[in-house]
Amino acid sequence: MNPFALAYREQQQLFLYDKGYLAATLLKAGGLSTLISRFIVQFFWNPVIALVVTALLLALSSYMLWAFARTSRRDWRSLALCLVPACFVGASLSDNSLHFDFLISLILIEAGLVIYKNIPSRKIFYGILITVVLYAAAGPASLIFALCALIYVSGDGFPSFVRALTIPAVAVVSGLVSYMLGGSPTLGHALTPAFHYNLDTAAPLSHWTAWVSIPAVYALSRLKNRKIILPAGIVLFAVSLISANAISRKIERKSNITGFEYEYYTVNERWDDLVQSCRRHVWSPGTANYMNLALAYKGKLTENIIRLDNRGVSSLLLIPEASSVDVRVAHIMFAMGNFAAAQNVAFNAMFCSEGYSPSMLKMNAQIELMRGDYDVADKYLSLLSKSLHYKKWAQAQRRFLWDEKAVAEDAFLSCGRKDFNLSDGFAMHVNPIDEVMLVVEANPYDKRAMDYTLSFLLLSKDIAKIHAFVDKYWGVGALETLPPAVQEALVFYSEYSRNFEGVEPVSIEWCLSHGVSPSIVQKFNAFQTASLKSNGAAPSGYRDTYWNYLLYKQL
After folding, report:
1. H or E stretch including 162?
2. Which positions ≥6 away from 545 have C-beta within 8 Å?
3. How large is the C-alpha radius of gyration of the chain?
């Protein structure tokens, strides 16, 4: 189990301390397991807490199963067997499309089995009753209870086994009723682990392993030859650990594990940790996006944009397919000051399969405060105020509601309000460079927007636009000094413009009067000499210069 993948579950829901929310959740099929799981997951804002709590719950699940399977309190022979299902449950939880109530539902049915074991008589009647109650509380996991109860009663002889078949039959009927009443979207969801899986994705068959293993290990624990139970359990536990590890790795290869880690540091604004995390992983457009986002918030984007292995504008923002919603895009657009595009993505990403996304709610609330749409901002803040972890933040933001003076005096909100341009749209275009340049035009004092604009122009190798941009904004707003890469681009453009017809020449004197240092000019002269001697290869000693990126790095 990856702790950051577990922590990301907290960003897929918002547990509300609200009577209507609690009642609506509880009254659904499997409502109790859903409510308990969401209550627990709200504390997963810390990856360590998420991992420890999940491990304890898996241990509790194993203990409950052992309490049902053992013949006495001193019977340790079946303990190893009872650890087997926890291995597969832990592997399944690596899949973030599988809801956490998958584990809670199993604990509830195991608690039902312990209760069932201690009922002295009328086993079939109480088995049917508990099955119905468990379906309402834990969903189709009650089928596992029914199968285990059937195995339990079968020890009383064949006639009892035949009569006990009514218990799993009732579990199936409960699922059919739930489906017909609209409690489950499909019959498959009403009767299988798909009940706990995202609706828009097919649940892998590997998640059946945890279900099947519970009645299987219980049946093995009832073998008449008690001597083989312990060694068989140890062997099966070892095999299960290996198999579960393979399943977990397969799930993690298909999911965005590094993205969960990046997202954790982003929503908690831990930019130094995000930088270190990106350095530990394979460089990719997604990693580059988060690395550059962290550097932008640290005010070090443009000074590092060429030193890193960035290739093209996708290193700053990789736009996914039009049909997908990516919170990464929302964070980057928000940092760029392109709040219309950020809100477009954040609004669609705000609704998760298990409730609201807290970080997207916060982003929407802040954007509405910038817009001055206080009624809408109030709705977002009201939701956050009903949570445990975000209540304090929401209450602090409420002081800006209907208070123009307070917004104007807040550096972040007032700067954001100025970022809205006259042609403000509510959709993201395919070219983010044009949009961020509109932000700078509206508010040249937004340093992050300025840094992103320069970085986009640098990575796109558009030296003509870099010259035009500096010519327009030098000494205005946030462009008070030029990063080395921009200085290098201007010196190169000066040489280019003076040697090609049809291009208005730009003198070195112009460069020096617009923030270029004499040392950069001298270094460029040395670079030209080294390039002539290198016979077309990249000259050594200039790897971190913009000239090397411009001439020798393929996009």
Report:
1. helix 158-164
2. 306, 485, 488, 523, 527
3. 30
Distance separating alpha carbons of residues 179 and 521, to the nearest angstrom: 74
Q: Which residue has the tokens 């809801």?
A: 99
Beta carbons of 399 and 406 less than 8 angstroms apart: yes
| Residue of 254, 308, 261 whose CA lies nearest to 285 | 308
Query: Dihedrals φ, ψ of 428, to 5°?
Result: -90, 130
SS (H, E, C) 480-518: CCCCHHHHHHHHHHHHHHCCCCCCCCCCHHHHHHCCCCH
CA 3 to chain CA centroid, nearest Å: 12
> DSSP letters along 64-87, please?
HHHHHH-SSTT--TTHHHHTHHHH
Secondary structure, 3-state, 349-404: HCEECCEECHHHHHHHHHHHHHHCCHHHHHHHHHHHHCCCCCHHHHHHHHHHCCCH
For residue 281, give Cα distances in angstroms to 276, 278, 285, 303, 457. 9, 5, 12, 22, 26
Q: List, for residues 329-339, the tens digit of each pLDDT value.
A: 999 999 999 99
Helices (H), 194-324: 208-221, 229-254, 257-267, 271-280, 285-297, 301-304
51, 248, 259, 416, 537 from 311: Cα distances, Å = 36, 32, 20, 29, 19
Query: CA 132 → CA 22, 30, 68, 121, 194, distances in Å?
Result: 21, 11, 20, 18, 19
pLDDT digits (tens, 9 = 90+) for 129-145: 999 999 999 999 999 99
Q: What is the pLDDT of residue 227?
A: 80
| 511, two tokens | 């460069």
Smallest CA-to-CA distance from 436 within 308, 341, 368 is with 341
Q: Please count the residues of the chain.
A: 555
Percent of the chain with pLDDT over 70: 97
Residue in the block written with tokens 């089928």: 143
pLDDT of residue 426: 46
